[in-house]
From TrEMBL:
It comes from Paenibacillus methanolicus. The chain crosses the membrane at residues 21-41, 325-347. Its EC number is 2.7.13.3. This is histidine kinase. Keywords: ATP-binding, Cell membrane, Kinase, Membrane, Nucleotide-binding, Phosphoprotein, Transferase, Transmembrane, Transmembrane helix, Two-component regulatory system. Residues 417-612 form the Histidine kinase domain. GO terms for cellular component: plasma membrane. It comes from the Bacteria. Residues 344-396 form the HAMP domain. It is an enzyme of class 2 (transferase). It catalyses: ATP + protein L-histidine = ADP + protein N-phospho-L-histidine. Its main location: membrane.
Length: 630
């Protein structure tokens, strides 16, 4: 990881100046804006959530309080028969009446049946009180009073009565029988009304006790679910979610989704996570994230759970976020535009100076920087102009000094050797060899004479690539005389480059280096390939052999010597000298490059400048003969 960060930091450091300035400007603008926008959005979203939880909790608390009050009124309604002697009297008569009927039915004495008008009196007496009870609390759908035989006396609003009261009575009587006369709250159950419609109601039931504390009947009060429906609808309109009421076992008391009425949701997360008296938590319904807020009634242990979609909670904060984001992007875009203009304006003089430096690097010391202002860049430009002028003076001094030194060296060399004496002596030896029928010695002496003549002539003389190749051919022929048929020279030179003018003795040291260090005794011969090509910027001449090659360490060491310009010991002297001659003659942009693979090849490439080639001397031997290596 540290390496990765270091590389990235290096890339930043190596960026162009205008990009660095642009990056700095952007960071200075975007980072504060981003932090401010982010923290504002987060704080606003959290504040919105806290407000929603507090407000929804208050609404749930108020709703559950009203539901508790409603249930308490239902409980009070079930206690009325205990204080109404008329109800207890008529219930006792109803019990006696139906007991007598059962007895008569068992005895088979139909003449002793009680009068029907007695039953009508009982019904009128009880139903009148039921109607009174039903009108006490608005919203109680149905009130039922049963005698001990399960006979019902009821009063309800239109169509509200249950069809099958016998089944309901058995459930109610079973629940009330173990309560000891206390009211029992039964959860929501589904029933079919007298109008054949499905309805839901929760019920409060209680035993009716006479003065002797003996049960004489049962009262059941069904709730009007529209009361809870109105409360929950008000809450859902505010929260834009769905609310639900469940009992302590997880059975649904009321849900706006009618399919979930009376369902057991004890295993669902929305109920399982609603622990304690009240609180909130996040969950999902149908893949949508919801905020659940719950409140528990201390009277009934019922829980009201409100599910608020997160999108409803964050709607206002999303608007704030989008507005903030749009403002931030607009600010960043404006800052980017201004930063771009400023950075390019600041770095334009630097780019101009870099172009001038490249021009100077290519050898043009006439370039000058136009100073317009007196700022730091203007001062730098003045120093640049002074530096270029001084460099040009120094180069001229060095050039004159080197010219004088080379002339002195050549004069010293030529004073030590008399070329005419060498030529005449070698020619005399060659003629003697021919007279003695020693053709090989004569040819070798002739080749040595040509090489000597080529080598010790004016060192400042420019020759064509073709003449340099002829000289290489003579050298390879001499090698093949010493090592018979061990070297094969091949050339691939475009015709237009044969007349390319170049300094003398650039290729012979390369071939000599290849034959001296690269000869592989395990191969029957060494191939020496010389190729030339012209690119957009250079003329490249490549000398390649298929000899021993070099190890990577040796190759890197030799390349380092080329960069330093001075060999250590005897290794690489020829290559370093050729490289230095090229740079001295044409500039530091030119020179040689080396490639090699151990056991495969070594290739040395000379890069020379493009220039108009003039025809030089005609070659003394044909190139096809050179390719045969003599």
């Amino acid at each position: 990881m540290s390496q990765f960060l270091r590389r990235q930091w290096t890339r930043v450091i190596e960026m162009r100046m205008e990009r660095k300035l642009l990056l700095v400007f952007l960071l200075l603008v975007t980072m504060p804006l981003t932090f401010i926008s982010y923290f504002s959005y987060v704080n606003y979203a959290e504040s919105t959530q806290r407000t929603a939880i507090r407000y929804s909790t208050n609404m749930l608390e108020g709703m559950m309080g009203r539901v508790d009050d409603y249930i308490e009124d239902m409980v009070n309604m079930t206690s009325i028969p205990a204080y109404q002697d008329d109800i207890k009297f008529n219930l006792s008569r109803s019990n006696e009446y139906y007991a007598m009927r059962e007895q008569i039915g068992a005895d088979g004495n139909a003449s002793a049946a009680p009068a029907f008008d007695q039953l009508l009196q009982i019904q009128r007496g009880i139903q009148g009180n039921v109607s009174f009870i039903n009108n006490i609390k608005r919203g109680a759908t149905s009130v039922y009073i049963f005698d001990l035989h399960g006979n019902a006396y009821s009063q309800a609003e239109s169509g509200g009565l249950r069809q099958n009261l016998a089944d309901s009575y058995r459930t109610w009587e079973s629940a009330a029988s173990v309560s000891g006369g206390e009211p029992v709250l039964l959860g929501t159950r589904k029933y079919v009304s007298m109008l054949n419609s499905d309805k839901y109601a929760f019920t409060v039931v209680r035993k009716i006790i006479d003065k002797a504390l003996q049960p004489i009947g049962l009262i059941a009060v069904d709730a009007d679910m529209s009361v809870i429906q109105d409360q929950i609808k008000t809450l859902d309109d505010v929260t834009q979610g769905e609310s639900i009421i469940v009992d302590e076992t997880g059975r649904v008391i009321y849900s706006a989704d009618r399919t979930r009425m009376t369902a057991d949701i004890s295993d669902e997360p929305m109920f399982a996570n609603a622990k304690g008296e009240q609180g909130s938590f996040y969950g999902e319904i149908a893949g949508e994230r919801q905020l659940f807020i719950y409140m528990t009634s201390p009277n009934t242990e019922w829980k009201a759970i409100a599910a608020i979609p997160e999108r409803a909670l964050t709607k206002d904060s999303r608007v704030i976020r989008n507005v903030t984001l749009a403002a931030t992007l607009a600010t960043v875009a404006l800052a980017l535009l201004i930063s771009t203009l400023v950075s390019f304006a600041l770095t334009k003089p630097l780019r101009k100076m870099m172009q001038l430096m490249r021009t100077v690097q290519d050898g043009d010391f006439k370039a000058t920087f136009q100073v317009r202002y007196g700022d730091e860049i203007g001062q730098l430009g003045r120093q640049f102009n002074r530096m270029i002028a001084r460099i040009e003076e120094l180069i001229q001094d060095i050039f004159r000094s080197e010219s004088r030194r080379r002339e002195a060296e050549m004069h010293a060399l030529q004073s030590q050797i008399n070329p005419h004496f060498m030529y005449n002596t070698l020619e005399t030896i060659r003629m003697a060899a021919e007279l003695n029928d020693d053709a090989d010695a004569a040819e070798m002496i002739q080749l040595l004479g040509k090489q000597l003549r080529y080598s010790i002539s004016n060192v400042n003389e420019e020759v064509t690539l073709e003449r340099e190749l002829v000289h290489i051919g003579h050298y390879v022929q001499l090698l093949n005389r010493r090592y018979p048929n061990r070297f094969r020279l091949q050339t691939q030179i475009p015709p237009e480059l044969l007349a390319y003018p170049m300094a003398k003795l650039l290729l012979q040291p390369l071939v000599e280096n290849a034959t001296l260090h690269g000869l592989d005794d395990n191969k029957p011969y060494m191939s020496l390939d010389i190729e030339a090509r012209q690119t957009d910027r250079y003329v490249e001449i490549r000398v390649m052999d298929d000899g021993l090659g070099m190890e990577p360490e040796t190759l890197e060491r030799l390349r380092a010597k080329l960069v330093r310009g001075a060999p250590d010991g005897d290794e690489g002297i020829g290559l370093v000298n050729v490289n230095e001659r090229i740079k001295l003659h044409w500039g530091i942009a030119y020179g040689i490059d080396i490639e090699s693979a151990s056991g495969l090849f070594t290739a040395v490439t000379i890069r020379l400048p493009l220039m108009t080639a003039g025809r030089g001397e005609q070659s003394e031997i044909s190139l096809d003969r050179l390719e045969r290596g003599g």
